[in-house]
């Protein structure tokens, strides 16, 4: 009888620790602070570039592949608001000119999932080279928000961007592949600031 009790006790204790060991990574992921999603873009991804403007070119098309990745293997993400993506260029270092806007509807992204948005926008003008150079400095900005699928978590504001140069002499992109969207640098001062009530939500 005593042996039997010991055996049961032993089994209970070991299954408790076994369970803890198995669950530990899951618990760590759940209770550690989750990571913000990452965004990157490949513009002109499947396009032959010709940046020479002809007299009747009043606009151009920009093909792109936008990659949105939930970096968390154990938590889902909501993008509760429409994501706004803006394509623009710099005619000189003190000015930014809008070329096209693109909207992405609110959506849910499961654990560790990556979403590719491949699409095309038509610009409202033909971009010019950055003054004094032989390249066009395109800028892509993304503004939106996300929220972890976890009770009581707040909405985080996202305001990210990147610059992609295209050499007009040989029609090549100066950076190839996907470019990570990062918090705007000095150039963002050229644009309207986000509303101050979002300031606390930055990560
Ligand atoms: C690029 O476009 C310009 C104007 O439309 C044209 O004159 C030129 O031949 C094109 N270049 C190439 C390599 O297709
Ligand atoms: C930049 O370009 C804009 C529009 O072309 C012009 O109004 C402005 O004076 C330019 N600024 C500089 C510093 O060249
Ligand atoms: C772009 O240009 C084409 C032809 O030049 C024209 O039909 C079209 O309306 C233009 N689109 C925009 C958004 O200006
Ligand atoms: C995105 O654009 C829509 C319509 O232009 C606007 O109402 C909304 O406030 C924008 N979202 C953000 C986060 O700026
Ligand atoms: C653009 O391409 C030409 C020809 O390949 C090269 O000589 C020039 O240095 C390039 N410009 C930039 C800014 O890289």
Number of helical segments with 4 or more residues = 1
The major β-sheet equals: 7 strands, antiparallel
Instruction: Estimate what percentage of residues fall within beta strands.
Output: 35-45%
Relative helix content: 10-25%
Here the CATH topology of the largest domain equals Immunoglobulin-like
Can you characterise this structure?
Helix content is 15%, strand content 39%. The protein starts with a helix and ends in a 23-residue tail after the last strand. The chain is elongated and about 95 Å long. The chain folds into two domains: 1-33; 35-190, Sandwich (Immunoglobulin-like). The protein has one helix at residues 2-31, and strands at residues 38-43, 61-69, 77-79, 83-92, 95-104, 107-109, 114-122, 135-148, 156-167, 172-173, 179-180. The chain has 203 residues and is mainly beta. Strands 3, 4, 5, 6, 8, 9 and 10 form a seven-stranded antiparallel beta sheet that branches. Strands 7-2-1-11 form a four-stranded antiparallel beta sheet, with no helix packed on it. It contains one helix and eleven strands, in the order αβββββββββββ. Residues 81-82, 84, 143-144 line the site of one 2-acetamido-2-deoxy-beta-D-glucopyranose.
């Amino acid at each position: 009888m005593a042996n039997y009790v010991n055996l049961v006790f032993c089994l209970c204790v070991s299954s408790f620790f076994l369970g803890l060991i198995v669950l530990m990574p899951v618990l760590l992921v759940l209770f550690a602070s989750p990571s913000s999603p990452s965004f990157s873009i490949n513009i002109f991804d499947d396009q032959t570039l010709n940046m020479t403007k002809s007299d009747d070119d009043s606009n151009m098309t920009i093909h792109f592949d936008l990659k949105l990745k939930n970096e968390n293997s154990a938590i889902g993400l909501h993008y509760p608001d429409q994501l706004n993506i803006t394509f623009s260029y710099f005619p000189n270092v003190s000015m930014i000119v809008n070329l096209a806007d693109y909207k992405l509807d609110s959506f849910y992204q499961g654990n560790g999932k990556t979403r590719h948005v491949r699409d095309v926008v038509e610009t409202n003008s033909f971009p010019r080279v950055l003054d004094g150079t032989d390249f066009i400095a395109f800028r892509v900005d993304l503004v939106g928000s996300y929220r972890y699928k976890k009770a009581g978590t707040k909405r985080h504001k996202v305001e990210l961007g990147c610059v992609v140069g295209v050499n007009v002499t040989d029609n090549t992109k100066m950076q190839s592949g996907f470019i990570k969207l990062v918090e705007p640098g000095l150039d963002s001062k050229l644009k309207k600031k986000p509303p101050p009530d979002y300031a606390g939500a930055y990560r």
